[in-house]
Amino acid sequence: MEQKVKILIIALIAILVASFFLTYQAYNAKQAAEREVDALKVDNSSLAKKANDVLAQNQQMQNRISVLSADVERFTKEKESIQNKLELLNKEKTELVEQVKSLKSQKSEAASASSPLVSYKQNLSEPADAYWAGILKQKTDLEIQIRAIRQDLKSLQIANEQIQKENNSLLLEVNSINREKMDMKRQLEFSQKEMDGKLAYNQTILDSLAAELVREKNDKFQIQEGSKPVKDENTYLRRQLKGLYNRNISLQRKLAELQNKNATLDSRLYEMETMLKDKMLQADTLKKNLETRQAQGSAAAVTASKKESVELPPIVVRPKEAGGTSGEKEAAPLVGRVLAVNRENNFIIMNLGEDSGIKVGNIFSVYRQDQPIADVEIIKIHKNISACDIKKEDATIKVGDIVK
């Protein structure tokens, strides 16, 4: 049973360590996922900031392009108006050239005419010269204006070419910005998809970890519920062990007391054996003295010596077999006498031993005037004497009481 309890305790400790390890791994995985999510959020915010900067630059470029387009349209309109003016001037020039040609033809015709007409033409030549002088002046003014307009057209063409170059460069920049924008957008979409995938993967991991934690908690709860009877049984066993330990201690104390009693009994029995040997030697001496006196023919001395011999310690009448170690009383008990009483250790010494056929564990009764006064149990045996533990005592046992 103790082995099973130890195995259960070791299994519980192993389960607790495994659950703690899995919880620690889940916590570390969760922290790593949170750190990855934070890093992705930072990357997303930086990409969003870059995208906003690119959009702002694109808007600025769009505004600049719109301004340049407005300038180009304005210059185009001015160019068209100047071209219209130039066409008008060209038309006027052609008209004037035609008028001059017509006047030259009229003049040549007038020179070939008659003399009265010549005088008349000479009279008319003065205002005609003034007219042609004014026409030539207008022509020179128009030519100057045309040169100025042409210079303005050249400067406008140069400015238009510069504007077109700037427009082309701006268009290239806009295209590059649009390409960068598309790249950034694709990167954002890819990073968003990657982040969504990572978030989904992390969420799946977190869900699985949460499910594992819930399952572990349920298993732990079931283990705790299942370990309650084991704990109760363990507590009961500990109480029993404690009781057995206390009982063992008490038994050890009793054993020590019994060993002390046994040692005391051995010493007392040794003393009793020594005393009995001394008495037996005295009895033999008395018998020899009696035999010597009988040989001398003194009948009275023999009788006296017999009386004295009767007063010696009790002699066993007849030995009988003991009742075994079962503790039951003998049907025909042996008869002995109490030789000594030890009140400190609660035992007596009687004059029955191995020669009488008794064994350890036999129970005898103590009689006084044919009345039972106590029950004793043999605990130590020698050849002619034995020690008995007092089990029951109705009256105080004294030296000389009958044991049978």
Topology:
Blueprint: H1 2-111, H2 115-296, H3 299-310, E1 336-342, E2 347-350, E3 363-368, E4 371-381, E5 386-393, E6 402-403
Antiparallel strand pairs: 1-2, 1-6, 2-5, 3-4, 3-6, 4-5
Helix pairs in contact: 1-2, 2-3
What keyword list fits this structure?
404 residues; six-stranded antiparallel barrel; 3 helices; Thrombin, subunit H; 2 domains; Helix Hairpins; alpha+beta
Architecture overview:
The protein is 75% helix and 9% strand. The chain is an alpha+beta fold and 404 residues long. It folds into 2 domains: 2-225, Helix Hairpins (Orthogonal Bundle), CATH 1.10.287; 314-404, Beta Barrel (Thrombin, subunit H). It has a 6-stranded antiparallel β-barrel. The protein is rod-shaped.
Q: Please report the first level of CATH classification, the CATH class of the largest domain.
A: Mainly Alpha
What is the makeup of the main sheet? 6 strands, antiparallel, barrel
Task: Tell me the number of helical segments per DSSP (H or I, 4 or more residues long).
Answer: 3
Radius of gyration: 75 Å
Average pLDDT value?
Answer: 77
Here the CATH topology of the largest domain equals Helix Hairpins
Q: Name the helicity range.
A: over 70%
Number of discrete domains = 2
Unreliable stretches (pLDDT < 50, length at least 5) are 114-124, 304-331
What's the helix-strand series?
A: HHHEEEEEE
Tell me the CATH architecture of the largest domain.
Orthogonal Bundle
Strand content: 5-15%
Give the termini distance in whole angstroms.
Answer: 49 Å
Q: In terms of structural class, how would the helical and strand content be classed?
A: alpha+beta
Strand order of the largest sheet: 1-2-5-4-3-6
Q: How many beta-strand elements?
A: 6
Shape: rod-shaped
